[in-house]
Amino acid sequence: MKKVNKVNLVIFAIIGLVIFCGRVVFAAGEYHIVKDRSTLAFEIMNSDGEAILGEFLEFDGNIFLDKHNLETFNTNIDVQAINIKTDSIEKDDQMRGEEYFDAVNFPTISFTSRRILRKKIDVSRKHPNYEVLGSLNIKGQKVEIAFPVFVSGPITQPMGGESIYITGEKNKV
Question: Most-buried pick from 61, 107, 139, 153 (CB within 10 A)?
Answer without folding.
Answer: 61
